[in-house]
Amino acid sequence: QVQLVESGGGLVQAGGSLRLSCAASGRTFSSYAMGWFRQAPGKEREFVAAISTSGVSTYYADSVKGRFTISRDNAKNTVYLQMNSLKPEDTAVYYCAADWGITRLRLGKGDYWGQGTQVTVSS
């Protein structure tokens, strides 16, 4: 079993940056692919980024390519999402997820989910 807790959200002006963190409990963190998703009010949850168990492979939604970077530190049981050049349309609750397969994460699936952290980008 894995428990995930997101942090680092907040209010930022357009063009600014934030770094989200997801801390995981459990001794099998390095066995899971990790991902970030987001959900805006009144909209469906959407895939943002995913990273393989070793961190060698990463995937991004077209809307965030070149602006967001996902990374992980297995020694700290933590995954990060560095968000630069933020836009108002990035406003959403951001969720961390874990799954045995990165392909499932890319398709919007996850075995475990965090509680979410709010990101608000003002214009």
Which descriptors apply to this entry?
four-stranded antiparallel beta sheet; single chain; 123 residues; 1 helix; globular; mainly beta
How would you describe this protein?
The chain is mainly β and 123 residues long. Helices cover 4% and strands 50% of the residues. It has one helix at 102-106; strands at residues 3-7, 10-13, 18-25, 33-39, 46-51, 58-60, 68-73, 78-83, 92-99, 112-113, 117-122. Strands 2, 4, 5, 6, 9, 10 and 11 form a 7-stranded mixed beta sheet that branches. The radius of gyration is 13 Å and the shape is globular. It starts with a strand and ends with a strand. The relative contact order is 0.32.
How is the topology of this model organized?
Layout (H helix, E strand, L loop, with lengths): L2 E5 L2 E4 L4 E8 L7 E7 L6 E6 L6 E3 L7 E6 L4 E6 L8 E8 L2 H5 L5 E2 L3 E6 L1
Parallel strand pairs: 2-11
Antiparallel strand pairs: 1-3, 3-8, 4-5, 4-9, 5-6, 7-8, 9-10, 9-11
* Individual helix count: 1
Please count the beta strands (DSSP E, at least 2 residues each): 11
Shape: globular
Terminal residue distance: 40 Å
Low-pLDDT stretches: none
The whole-number mean of residue pLDDT values reads 95
Main β-sheet: number of strands, strand sense, barrel status?
7 strands, mixed
> What is the radius of gyration?
13 Å
Helix content: under 10%
Structural class: mainly beta
SSE order in H/E notation? Answer: EEEEEEEEEHEE
As a percent range, the share of strand residues is: over 45%
